Every structure is written in structure tokens, then in C-alpha cells.
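Suppose a colleague, Dr. K., hands you the sequence of a protein chain of 237 amino acids and asks what its three-dimensional shape might be. Before reaching for any lab equipment, you can write down a predicted structure in C-alpha cell form. Begin with the sequence itself:
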Amino acid sequence: MVASRYYETTYSQKDVARLCEIGGFVPNDLDEFREELEELAAIYRYENARFQNLPSYKAVSAELINIQKQAARLSDSLQRLGWEARRAIEKGIDADSIRMITEGIAAPEHPSLFLSLNSRTDELMGVNVDIPDLKAILGGLQNAAHAGQQELRKRPSRKIPDYGLRLWLSNIENRWTQMSPHPFSRDIDRNGEPITYAGRFCVAAFKKIEPSYSTSRIMNGIKNLKKARRKPSGKAG
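The predicted structure, expressed as C-alpha cells, is then:
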């Protein structure tokens, strides 16, 4: 089950009946099968959305470096605080503590230097976040951003693989043996058109989700799925 925004009306009853005819099988319940196809389509949209408009390595790296710099500057400012400025912040911490007691207002639900440790109960449990705590948190943020930037992998310039299509095909293949007497195969004719029940079903069904996808792209998806699932055979010793 994914978020409601990924659901659309993809298949009519007529579409599903036609797909079953193409696939060479008859489901026990046509409406239930249509709902299942809609669920798989929604899962595809969710998975596909995760890889759309991904920011570049350069953009993500710049964001993390910026966080490091800002955290370092703020930590340095806290380190250099004069007595009066420090006292002003400490008064703010005290005021936030009182606000928690009198009004129940605290972090993380509200901007506050009092951190509630158990917001799900009526108990007044929490801690003040004082200046040393803030410096430690900023140091942790700086370290996390630095580590993330160092571990960030450069994305290949080539086209991102069809992860959404791969997942959809995988889900169909897993369901195929339960609904069809025919093997999940992908043979094509000399023009690249599918000639197996499974191949023709996948092309017809997926084009209802993504009409712009070519037959060859979908068939290549099946080939890549099968290739990924094929385990290398070990040599006998």
C-alpha cells in the first residue's frame, strides 16, 4: 500500500478482460484482479517517482558543504559569545522551560530550547538545551554533513535504469505462476514484437500505465530482470 497520490484509474473492466485474453488466462475474480493491477501500477508510480528529477552529485555535495560551513560558523559564534549575549540566550532557555510547564510548548513540535522527551503523555518530561548542548549538536551536524559529503557517490551520466519498470515486472512475474498456466517468457519475433503470453501481457498492461514506453523498452526490461535473477553456476571441483 502506497500513498493515495500514486493511485489512478488505470484499467477499466474491459481493459482487464482484454489483458486476460492476451495473457491466456481467466482470473477467479475479474474485479479483484483489476484492483491488484491498480495496486501494482501505484507501486510502480511510487518507485518511479523516487528516481525522477534526481539532483546532481554537484548539487547534493554543495548542500552538504553549505551545512558544514553554516554549522561551523554558528558553533564559532557560540564559542565567542560575550557575557551579556550568553546571558540573554540563557534567559531564553529559562523562558522556554516555563513555557513548557505553563503551556506545554516545547521542541520538537515548536521552536524551543526545551526538548520534550515524551510528548505522547501528559508528564512534563524533558531537558533544557543549553549553550554547550547546542555546540555539541552543531558539531554533530557538521560531522554528519561532512561524512555524507565524503561518502556521496557520483551519479553516472548515463540514463538512470528503469527501476520502476523492473519492480512492476518483478511483481507481475511473482504473480504470474498463480494466475497463468503459461511460462513467464519473453520471446520476440524478427520485428521485436512479443510472441509469448507473458510478453504480450506485460507490454499491453504496462502501456496502460506508461503509453510513451516502447515495446522494446518493456521487453528489454523483462530481459534485464531475468538476467539479474539468473544466478551464476559454480564449477564442480
